[in-house]
Amino acid sequence: MKRISMIVALLFVVTAGLFSQNERAAELKGHLITLTSDSLKGRAAGTEGERMAARYIERVFKESDIELLYPSPGQDFSFVNDSGDTLKSQNIVGIIEGYDPELKNEYILVGAHYDHLGSIKTKINGKDSLLLYKGADDNASGVAVMLEVAKMVRARNFLFKRSVIIAAFGAEERGMIGSWYFANRAFQHKEKISLMVNLDMLGRGGAGRGLYVYTMMPHTELTTLLKDASDKPLMPSPTIKTSSYFPSDHQVFAADGIPVALFTTGLHRDYHTNRDVEEEIDYVTMDMTTEYVFNLILDVANMGRMLSRTLFAPQEEIAKESGKARIYKQEETEIPAQFLHGREQRFLDRWVYKYLKYPQGAVDRGVSGRVIVEFTIDHEGKVKDVEVIKSLDYELDEAALKTVEASPDWKPAKIDGKPVSVRIALPVEFRLKR
């Protein structure tokens, strides 16, 4: 009887999970159908169709009890079109406040542009017709995922130390005007953005295409967090690219040194054509992406500190982030700090994994994963100020800390022939054999 009860309980959990997934897929489809309806006429920037899309996004925020950072009609701005006319667009921005009294003033930004190309008048079979560029994949798909992520975060906001900003950007097809306006004119705290997640073209993941994440440049901490999200049960394993792909809103934030992650299923032959319609959308990948993005931003929201700025960050911001004295990143130096004639991977292979002890308590509990440890190599090559910035488990955190703290001296980094201090973040992996 006990075994039968357990089987029934497991079936109930699986059924409940499937129902939840089916329900979210239906919600995603509902967003797509609304945003690609004929009445919106392709959502061209500055048109009534774009405004209708903005009102829909605003309504979903309100129904989900998500606070608007800028009241209706949103964060409005103007731009001049090719004909010299001044048109108006708007960003619709919601915020879900974190629970930590201090960290709630730092942010994870999840964005997606909601405009598209609009429509053109043409002749079809000799008759005047209106050809609609509905933009189901570009980018109703990204907006749909963004809205569902927002609802998940709002329902579980008690888990988030940092605040989450959800931004639907207007006029992206006009040269990323909406996101540029948000970052450079309207939002006053962009230096407090730990990560910008851009959701753009997520609807063509079927037929073996899969999901991709582009980070613009290598970023150890972010790549580790992306892999951690993949390790969670029932998560997709996106292909991570430390490069750029197509122009989109994330580039505005990357230019300021903010770590970015573009999620996309990629370009295709229907891109920017009237064949980009709802009937071609793959909702399975969109559903999995929603869950994946939620888990990623939850990890970023609860890290010990914000993600490190990239080399594009203003020098004064890098100096402030590094502490009182100027501490460089490895990539900024002429000769990076070295361990046994190698760099970080040599340190992991020849020292960390050689002497790292897997605590028996963690083994017994079946705990595995990655700890991100950050430390300074000073101008004398000594390892200092070791700390865990992404925790996994108390015993594993302590094991990683002790191993790194015990490191022999390195050869210090150099600039202009002079030794300088550098700050390094490394993922330390704990893997149980199966």
Describe the structure.
- The structure is a single chain.
- The chain has helices at 2-35, 48-63, 136-155, 177-186, 220-231, 250-254, 283-301, 315-322, 344-355, 360-365, 394-405, and strands at 67-68, 75-80, 86-96, 107-113, 118-124, 127-133, 163-169, 193-199, 212-214, 239-241, 260-264, 369-377, 383-390, 413-415, 418-420, 422-430.
- The strands form four sheets. Strands 1, 2, 3, 4, 7, 8, 9, 10 and 11 form a nine-stranded mixed beta sheet that branches.
- It folds into two domains: 2-301, Zn peptidases (Aminopeptidase, 3-Layer(aba) Sandwich); 323-430, Fusion Protein Consisting Of Minor Coat Protein, Glycine Rich Linker, Tola, And A His Tag, Chain: A, Domain 2 (2-Layer Sandwich).
- The chain has eleven helices and 16 strands.
- Helix 3 packs across helix 7 (283-301) and helix 5 crosses helix 7.
- A hairpin with a 5-residue loop joins strand 12 (369-377) and strand 13.
- Helix content is 35%, strand content 22%.
- It has 434 residues and is of the alpha/beta class.
